[in-house]
Amino acid sequence: MSLQEYVERILAGPDPAPIVAAGHPVLRGVAAPYTGQLAPATLADLIELMRRTMRAAPGVGLAAPQIGIPLALAVIEDPGGLDPELAAVRDRAPLAFRVLVNPRYEPAAPERASFYEGCLSLPGWQAVVARHRSVRLTGQDGSGEPLDEIVTGWPARIVQHETDHLGGTLYIDRAELRSLAADEGIGASFGAEPTPLTAARVLGFDLA
C-alpha cells in the first residue's frame, strides 16, 4: 500500500498510537525523506496523533518510526518543571512543541555532555549518553519552512535523540553500556542526580 494509505490506517487505529519497541525492524531502517507523500490534512492529523502519543507516554520527543511509520518526521516538547539544580546543571529549559521534518544535525562546538537518557521504545531502562552540547539543526518545520539554527543544552540532546531515530540509531547504540540501569530502585537514584558521577564511580565507567 502507499504511504498515504498506511498512515490513514494508523490514524484509524488506537489513539494514542502504540509505541513500537526495540527489536522491530522499523526502528533500524533509514526513514524516507518527506517529499509531500501525504495529503496536507493527513500530515496535520499525523502530527497531532504524534503529539498526543508523546504526551500520553509521557515523553519529550517522538519519531514517526516509533509508531511504525518509516518517515523522516519527529515531534519534540519538554515542559521542564525539574528541580532548579537539575535544570541548571543539565541546561534544561522548557521547550515549546515543535515539528521536525527531514531533520539533520551537526556539532556546533566540540563540547560534549554526559547524562542519563531513556527512550519510549526501550521502556524501563536508562543509560548515560555523551551528546554534543550544541548542534546546528537543519530541515523543515511542519509548515515546510526551512530550519537552520543552533540548539544548545537539553533541547540539543532531544534533537539528537529524535533525529538519530530517523537514521535507525537508538540511544543505546551511543550509550556507555556499563551505565545501563533500570528505571526503578538504585537506577532511579542514578538518573535523579544532576550528573551521573555516582553511577560512574560504582558501575565503573568514565564520563566524556
UniProtKB/TrEMBL annotation:
Q: How does the cofactor attach, per the note?
A: Binds 1 Fe(2+) ion.
Q: Which domain of life is it from?
A: Bacteria
Q: Which residues bind Fe cation?
A: C119, H161, H165
Question: Per its UniProt entry, what is the enzyme's top EC class, as one word?
Answer: hydrolase
For this UniProt record, the keywords arranged alphabetically read as follows: Hydrolase, Iron, Metal-binding, Protein biosynthesis
Active-site residues from the entry: E162
**BP GO annotations:** translation
Indicate whether Metal-binding appears among the record's keywords: yes
Record keywords: Protein biosynthesis included?
A: yes
Query: What's the cofactor?
Result: Fe(2+)
Name a GO molecular-function annotation.
metal ion binding
Task: Write the Enzyme Commission number(s) for this entry.
Answer: 3.5.1.88
What does the record give as the reaction this protein catalyses?
Answer: N-terminal N-formyl-L-methionyl-[peptide] + H2O = N-terminal L-methionyl-[peptide] + formate
InterPro entries membership: Peptide_deformylase (IPR023635), Peptide_deformylase_sf (IPR036821)
What this protein is reported to do is described as: Removes the formyl group from the N-terminal Met of newly synthesized proteins. Requires at least a dipeptide for an efficient rate of reaction. N-terminal L-methionine is a prerequisite for activity but the enzyme has broad specificity at other positions.
Similarity remark: Belongs to the polypeptide deformylase family.
Q: Under which name does UniProt file this protein?
A: Peptide deformylase
Species this protein is from: Pengzhenrongella sicca
